[in-house]
Amino acid sequence: MSDQLVIDTLDFVRNAGSLRGRVCPCDLERLQDYLTDKAGELVYSIEGLFDHQDRPMLRIAVSGTVNLSCQRCLEQLEHALELESELLLARNEDELCRYDEDVTVDAIMASTALDILTLIEDEIILSLPNSPRHQDIACLTTSKLEIYRAVTDEHPFAALATLKQ
Ligand SMILES: [Zn+2]
């Protein structure tokens, strides 16, 4: 594990805090369940600020690549992450309930000890596609191309039909 990075969220906003860093997918344990391997590097940034209504919030950005499994051909699929999210900081349960009713905003409870990497991991997992798939061409170069080769040897015309499907 890399060092734990913990912030006091409201303090971070009041001080217009900002943090940047790199993290390996291998350091994000829950994310592993979604990945085919531990390759890749993620760059993140987190900023504390007030929105136009003077509400404290965190702005999070993560970019990089991770390897998912294509749900069509089951081969590896390189997924480019480019996420940006804004989270309002609720100062109490009432405020959190109010924010939760508003579909235009996302909110979390303010905390005196928020683990940045856990937050980033949550945001990454939320951003992943439910059913990741290659673009057609990429899938063709793996599974369909193998079918094509196998069939072509015996039935060249059948192979063409398969390919047109
Ligand atoms: Zn595929």
From TrEMBL:
Highest taxon, organism lineage: Bacteria
Key words, A-Z: Ribosome biogenesis
GO BP field: ribosome biogenesis
GO cellular component: cytosol
InterPro entries: YceD (IPR003772), YceD_bac (IPR039255)
Coiled-coil intervals, chain numbering: none
Keyword Amino-acid biosynthesis included in the entry's annotation: no
Entry keyword Lyase: no
A Pfam family per the record: YceD
Described function: Plays a role in synthesis, processing and/or stability of 23S rRNA.
Family, similarity comment: Belongs to the DUF177 domain family.
Name of this protein: Large ribosomal RNA subunit accumulation protein YceD
